Amino acid sequence: MSLRLGDSAPDFTANSTAGEINLYEYLGESWGILFSHPADYTPVCTTELGTAAKLKGEFDKRNVKMIALSVDGIDSHHGWVKDINETQQTEVNYPIIADEDHHVSELYDMIHPNADNKLTVRSVFIIGPDKKVKLIITYPASTGRNFNELLRVIDSLQLTANYSVATPANWQHGEDVVIAPAIKNEDIPAKFPKGHKEIKPYLRTTPQPNL
Ligand code: BEZ
């Protein structure tokens, strides 16, 4: 059965561009983002891994460790990283797993046979410090991911893990958030001292509480 939100992220040990890597040891107390791509030396993947490398500082600020993966071998990864660095003007600065035996791809259900029976799709798993799966997104090979959206989602996941709020459509860091329905009106002033607006009894907003 495939993974669902709230499940424990399966642990694994795998070969990577940074040597042998154990997921749980690598993550430690950090958040993690594990993302697969279909194949090395392909155009969209080249732009994606370069973009991810350029944003590593943003992931670091959020205490998120990055790990990429495809079913290509380690020599292929090392050769391709040179191309990514050259063409995307960056330095790939996170491990890429060489999942030639499909061990990790199978654990995380990253191969979707009706799309392609050999290659991984563009899967994203965000893993919390408790090693639970917090977010799953799947894109097809033909569509490159928006890594700014992944940072936005991480901002939401980290905020909502600590406060009784949710983030509305298209929310960006710094904007008002929604007060969780479970919070009673009389408890709002103590929990949200910056104030709140009641648009409907079920739609109450407050300034982002952790700023
Ligand atoms: C790409 O990265 O460009 C790509 C990879 C596999 C299939 C289609 C596109």
UniProtKB/TrEMBL annotation:
InterPro entries found in the cross-reference section: AhpC/TSA, Peroxiredoxin_AhpC-typ, Peroxiredoxin_C, PRX_1cys, Thioredoxin-like_sf, Thioredoxin_domain
Keyword field: Antioxidant, Oxidoreductase, Peroxidase, Redox-active center
SUPFAM superfamilies: Thioredoxin-like
Top-rank taxon: Bacteria
GO biological processes: cell redox homeostasis
Active site residues according to the UniProt entry: 45 (cysteine sulfenic acid (-soh) intermediate)
Protein name: Oxidoreductase
GO MF terms held by the record: peroxiredoxin activity
Domain Thioredoxin, chain residue ranges per copy: 3-159
PANTHER family, alphabetized: MCG48959-RELATED (PTHR43503), PEROXIREDOXIN-6 (PTHR43503:SF4)
GO cellular component, one term: cytosol
Family affiliation: Belongs to the peroxiredoxin family. AhpC/Prx1 subfamily.
